[in-house]
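name: query_chain
kind: protein
chains: 1
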Amino acid sequence: MSEETVNAEGTATAVEGAGSSDEHPSTSETPLTGVPAAQPQQSETPKRHLRKTRVGEVVSNKMDKTIVVAVVRRVPHAKFGKIVKRTKKFYVHDENNQCAIGDLVRVEETRPLSRLKRWQLVEVLKH
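structure:
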């Protein structure tokens, strides 16, 4: 059979054309099942958002495996524009009780560990 015979019959071209992706290039469905085709995955592990990190000074270490870190931010005053200091205290998980009062530490955000603790110790910058 030549191509002219197949085109004249019409049935052969309809069967061949049903499986091609030329008819509907905008859909990503497989031709026979109607199920969306599998997209290539970038990696097997899900991406995790970057965690917030802060640098602050230890102001208390009297609790077991917990320290209190004061983080000082310098922000402009809302009305006058002068740079003012804003201090926020964070309860931080210190697994090894390695921090002393006055240490400069880096902490990162984590899941809630207790009622107030949502940060964990990353490293001690200055002892």
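note: The helical segments are 3-9, 11-18.
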